[in-house]
Structures are given as C-alpha cells and as structure tokens.
Specification:
- The longest helix has 30 residues, at 373-402.
- This protein has helices spanning 2-9, 11-27, 35-43, 72-78, 86-113, 116-119, 121-135, 139-147, 151-162, 167-180, 188-193, 197-217, 219-229, 233-236, 247-255, 263-286, 289-303, 315-324, 329-344, 347-352, 365-370, 373-402.
- The termini are far apart.
- It folds into two domains: 29-227, no CATH class; 233-410, no CATH class.
- It is globular, with a radius of gyration of 22 Å.
- Residues 402-411 have low confidence and may be disordered.
- By secondary structure, the chain is mostly helical.
- Its main location: membrane.
- InterPro entries: GT87.
- This is Alpha-1,2-mannosyltransferase.
- Keywords: Cell membrane, Glycosyltransferase, Membrane, Transferase, Transmembrane, Transmembrane helix.
- One of its GO terms (cellular component) is plasma membrane.
Length: 411
C-alpha cells in the first residue's frame, strides 16, 4: 500500500510521461501511419457512392489490400470524421481513444468500489489516473493506438451500456455498437443472464435499425454485405496470422490449415461456451457486474473467426478487478502471473518475426503453442473465475450462518 500511495501522489505526472513516451514510439514508427484508421477515413465516404465494398485503402500493405470490413452503418458512423483533414482526424481519434481508456478504467473502478467511490472519492479517482498511465503500456491498448483501431471506443460504449440502469440506454448502446462492428452483439447474453429482458429487446431493435438504415442508404450495397460478404473472414484478414488470437486462429496454426467451423473448432467452441456459462453464472450469483461483462466479452473474442490481438483490450478491466476485488489469493496471483507477461510484453511481435508472411498457416510446434497465448489464458480465466467466485460465495454463506445467534426467550 505504501508503494501505491507514493505512485498515487505523482499519478498525473506518470500519466503525462506515459502518454508522451507512447506517443513518441507511435509517431516515430509503424503507428504513425494508423493504417486501420486510414481505412475508415478514406473509405467511409464510399457508403454514399454505392461502392463501399469494391474499393481498398490507398495506404494498404503490399501483400494485403485493406477493404472496409464493417457493415454499412459503420461507415455512416465514421462519416463525420472524414470531414476533417487527415492529420486532424488522426489526432482527434487518438485523443478520443485516450479518453475512452480513462473512461473504461473509471467505470471499472467505480463498479469495484461501490459505495467506497463516494466515501473515498479522491483515492479512487487518483487510482483511475494511475491505471490509465499503466495500461498505456498494455500491448492490446498500444496496438489499438498503433493501428488506429476503434477497440477502446467500442469497449467504452459497451461497458457503459451494459451497466446502465436505464434499459433503453443499455439495449440501444449494445445494438448500435453491434451495428458498427458485429462482435459486441454477444453482450446480449449478459442481459439474458441477468434477466434484463427489456434491455435485450432494445438491443435487437437498435441493431435492426442500424441494419435498416444501411439498406435505406443503398439497398444493393447492404445486400452485398449481409448476404455475400458477411461471415467471410478471409476478407477481414489472414485467419492464421499471429495477430488473430481467436480459437479459430490458434487451432489453424496448430493443425497447419484453416479449420473453419469443422470438428476442432466445434469442440473448442462448445468448451468455451460451457466454461463461460459457469463463470457467468458465478458472476451473476456474486452480484459482480464487471466480471460478468468481461466474461461475456471474452467468450465473444474466443468464438469470433478473427479476434486481432488489439481486440483484447478487455484484459484491462480484468487486471484491475484482480488487484482490488476480494477473491481467493491463489486465483488473483495465478491470473496476474499468467496475463501480465503476455499483455505487457509483445508476444505477438515475437511470433510475427518468426512467420514468413501473414498468410502462412503452417508453424513449428513450439511457435503454434505460443500462438495460443490469448485464447488459452482466456479459457483458464473463465475456469478460475467460476471456481474462485463460487468459493467466495460459499465463504460468505458460512460467515452469515456463523453470525446468526439464537434469540433469548423470556418467561
């Protein structure tokens, strides 16, 4: 605690130093191009021209022409950014991403703190600044900035929506983010698990509205996406590259070919669903909204055909939860020791330097094992959450029973 107090005292300075250092690394290296952000910025206007899915980014790598891979509604959301010149759009988006990271940290800490957030507000707000400084060094966060990805923005909206009390706000937030990028649709499982039926219905309505708006803007374009391009991961990118940290990516590297949705993937997917089910049930019974949300997001990342390593920004709230939530020491230490080396050391770059091209599927045995880093730890995390929270609930139940005293009778 003494170390934390010393760090909290200089938290604003640490955040400033972290931001400057990370910015320097990005603008002097690969990240200065923000190649994914350039896709959004340069191609979004084509949604109004009817050829959104026929064009590719002029700043694509030589071996991978980058198309627009989101639904038409996603392009409509990006349109306001295209009204800025490129430099302004780039730096505005970077600033927005930093603010979203801080928002994610702040909401995470508020969920953990509960009533302590108001009774000791200054402490928890200092912690929010400190954690933002630390998480700028987490590789999924750094790669989000490096590529100019939308992960932090979507995660901030999804987290805010899933814990919102107003059912309409919660449902609309999830439905609209799913309309931009499909993976957040998995969040509806949390509404079902917590019996928030109205939020689930509103999420479906909002998602349907986003799809309908795409058809309204250009029917043929929307039809092409939903009935031809939807579900084609090859268009999104190479399934077996080290960047893809989904179950399908890890299995494909292990088997040496794209497993698709064949029996290896089906077995792994069923296992992931079962483990996530146990973890989610334990989270709901414990009344832990944060870890319930993280559990559902981990399941979505595991099941998605492609989950780039920078999509795993959801590890950030998990790390904060592990530090401050009262769970078994073995669970806390195990997950922190497993996750921290993976997310704070660039294990993805280590693999990329050892693969001939991003399109190569075959890997040496040891390298394919390293390629399981994120999905394997996600599965382990689901098991630990289920066991640790179940154990915590049993301890609380025992404590409650021990604290009950028989009433004295008079007469």
């Amino acid at each position: 605690m003494k170390l934390e107090q010393r760090l909290l005292a200089v938290a604003p300075w640490l955040l400033a130093i972290s931001a400057v250092a990370r910015t320097w690394v990005i603008v002097t290296g690969f990240g200065n191009e923000s190649i994914d952000l350039y896709v959004y910025w340069s191609l979004a206007p084509h949604v109004l021209e009817g050829d959104l899915y026929q064009v590719t980014s002029p700043h694509s790598p030589p071996d991978f022409p980058l198309p627009f891979t989101y639904p038409p509604f996603g392009a409509l959301v990006f349109l306001p950014m295209t009204w800025m010149f490129w430099g302004l759009a780039q730096w505005s988006f970077r600033l927005l991403s930093v603010l979203c990271l801080y928002w994610i940290v702040r909401v995470t800490l508020r969920l953990i703190a509960g009533e302590r957030w108001t009774t000791d507000a200054r402490l928890w707000r200092q912690r929010a600044i400190l954690w933002t400084a630390v998480l700028l060094w987490m590789m999924p966060v750094f790669h989000t900035f490096e590529f100019g990805q939308i992960n932090l923005v979507l995660a901030a909206v999804v987290l805010a929506a899933m814990v919102a009390r107003d059912q309409r706000v919660a449902g609309a937030g999830i439905g609209l983010t799913a309309g931009v990028k499909l993976v957040p649709a998995i969040s509806g499982l949390y509404f079902l698990a917590t019996r928030r039926w109205a939020a689930a219905v509103w999420s479906i309505v909002a998602f349907a509205a986003s799809v309908g708006l795409g058809f309204l803007v250009d029917f043929n374009q929307a039809k092409q996406y939903w009935f031809v391009l939807f579900g084609d991961p090859d268009r999104v990118g190479p399934v077996a590259t080290a960047h893809n940290q989904s179950l399908r990516g890890a299995l494909s590297r292990t088997f040496g070919y794209d497993v698709g949705m064949s029996w290896p993937w089906l077995i792994a997917a069923v296992a992931a669903v079962v483990l996530a089910g146990f973890a989610l049930r334990a989270a709901v019974r414990a009344g832990d909204a944060l870890i319930g949300v993280v559990t559902v997001q981990f399941l979505g990342l595991l099941l998605s055909p492609i989950s780039w390593d920078h999509h795993w920004v959801w590890v950030a709230p998990l790390l904060i939860w592990l530090v401050y939530t009262r769970i078994a020491t073995w669970a806390r230490i195990t997950l922190l020791m497993l996750w921290c080396p993976v997310v704070f050391w660039d294990v993805i770059a280590f693999q990329l330097r050892r693969q001939p091209t991003i399109w190569t599927i075959s890997r040496p045995g040891w390298l394919s094992a390293v390629g399981w880093a994120y999905p394997a730890l996600a599965l382990v995390t689901l098991v630990v959450i289920a066991v640790a929270l179940a154990g915590t609930m049993r301890i609380r139940s025992t404590d409650l029973k021990d604290n009950v005293r028989p009433m004295n009778t008079v007469g």
